[in-house]
Structure formats: structure tokens, C-alpha cells
């Protein structure tokens, strides 16, 4: 019984020792690959900068699309329907219509502007006040401004509400000026597709750049790799430092990309603030969130690992020791 327990303990320790040794070996090779990058600073810095700048462009375009969608949602929630009443509508009929529209479940607020108020505002704002004094009849109709609630403030729902309001007897015409917003949404969708296409092309270029960098590193160590194979080293053991080099390129390149995006967002935020002040708007440019920065970092690491993997699988297998 005691002998069996001792064998079992020895077996468990053996597994633990092998796992610990494997982890330590991976850490040593990862740190060693970082040292190799440090010993070739020019090549490493250039590769990291190319990787970072390549990822900065799609990340910045994503930031633009993200803020455009935020602006669109703000304008959508502020949509307003203008109803022009018939000139023959009496004041009492207009007030009754206002009360009836206010009871609509889709409506949040109703503002009534009488024909007299509309003419008075037009005299002040148009600059033709004296000329308008010669008019014998008010040409402007009474107007009702209808603000939908949040549920019906979106484009499609607001259009449906407009059609419903135009069925009222005293309404001559309704207006919902959202055509420009529809165009903006279409442009945002187009830009989003362009961002995806550019991101795919740049990611492919990053993979090729990393692969070429790792290929040159393999060729520079061709003799050392041949000697390692001669003494019995496996391909997987030889490949690990180069794979870790690709990971380090991704880590550093992702950090550079995040830093560049943050700098660009801060620069554009100042320019945008001057523009929004002219329109008395409180819009603030939103930068990358923590989740988006993490995704950018993981993408850079994945691209670096993919590029290095493709390169080592192709070139290390081709290196074989030769007998002198």
C-alpha cells in the first residue's frame, strides 16, 4: 500500500514538474525574443511604427463613424413635425385641433403658433416690416409644432405619425425635415463599409510586413537554426522565439496605435469644439472606450502572431543541417 502511494505521488510530481518546466521554458523564450528585438533597435522600431500607423487609420475612421452615429441619434431624438393649417381655419377650430393632437399617445409636446404670431415674427426677422404693413390680408397660416415622444422620434415612426396628422381635417400640409438626416445615415453607412475595406487591406499589409521581418530574422540565424536541428531541437522549439517576436510586435504596435488615436482624438476635439460653439452645441468627441482599446490591442497581437506563424512555418522547415 505504501509503495503504491509513493509511486502515485511521484507520478503527480512528475506531471507538475513537466508543466512547470514547460511554463518556465516559454517564459525564457518570450523574454529572449524581446531581447532579440532590443538588439536590433532600428528594424524593431520601424516595424512597430508601421504596424501602429497601419492600425491607426482604421481605428480613427471607426472613431469618426462612432461619433457620427452618436450625432445622428441626437438629431433623430429631436425631430419635430410642422403642421400648416388651412387659411380658412378659425381660431377656435385650431385650438380644438391642438387639444386633440395633444391627446395622441405618440406626441410629447404641442406648440401652437397663430397666424398673427407668425406674421409678427416674420416682420421682425425678414426685414420687410414696413412693406408688410400694406398687406390687406395675412398670407401666413397658423402653425402647430408637434414633438414626438422618444419612441416615435425615429425616422420611420416619425413619418408614420406625420401621415396620421395630415389626415386631420384642418391640416393643409405637414413637414418633417429628415431627408438630410437620411442622407447622413446613408453616408455614415458608406463610410463604415469603407472603414471595413480599408481595415482588411491594412491588416493584410501588417501580416505581410511582420512575416517579412520574421523571415529576415530567420535567414540571419540560418546557421544557428541548422546547428540546433543537428543536435536534436524540434521545429516547434525553434519556432517559439520567432512566434513570440510576432506577439511582441503586436503588443508594441497596438500600444502605438492606441496612443496615436488618443492624440488625434484630442487634437480633433479642440477643432470640433470651436465648430460646435458656433452652433451652440454641447457635443463632445468620444474617444475609444476601454473595450475598444483592448480589442485594438488584441487585433494587433493576433496580426503579429499570424504573420510570424506563416513565416516560420514556411522557412524553418526549409532549413536542414548539411554534412560537411
Briefly summarize what is shown:
The chain is about 75% helix and about 5% strand.
What's the arrangement of secondary structure elements?
Elements: H1 2-39, H2 41-77, E1 81-85, H3 91-102, E2 107-113, H4 115-126, H5 129-132, E3 143-148, H6 155-165, E4 171-175, H7 179-220, H8 222-230, H9 235-278, H10 290-315
- Point out poorly predicted stretches: 1-11
Helices, by number, come to: 10
Question: What is the percentage of strand-forming residues?
Answer: 5-15%
Q: What structural class do helix, strand and pairing data support?
A: alpha+beta
Radius of gyration over all CA atoms, rounded = 34 Å
Q: How many domain units? A: 2
Q: Give the assembly state of these chains.
A: single chain
Amino-to-carboxy terminus distance: 57 Å
What sequence of helices (H) and strands (E) makes up the elements? HHEHEHHEHEHHHH
The biggest sheet amounts to: 4 strands, antiparallel
Overall mean pLDDT stands at: 77
Structure write-up:
By secondary structure, this protein is an alpha+beta fold. It has 2 domains: 25-74 and 182-315, no CATH class; 80-177, Alpha-Beta Plaits, CATH 3.30.70.3040. Helices cover 73% and strands 7% of the residues. It has 10 helices and 4 strands. A 4-stranded antiparallel beta sheet has the order 2-3-1-4. The longest helix has 44 residues, at 235-278. The model is unreliable at 1-11 (pLDDT under 50). Residues 80-161 form the FtsX extracellular domain. This is Cell division protein FtsX. Belongs to the ABC-4 integral membrane protein family. FtsX subfamily. Part of the ABC transporter FtsEX involved in cellular division. It comes from Colwellia chukchiensis.
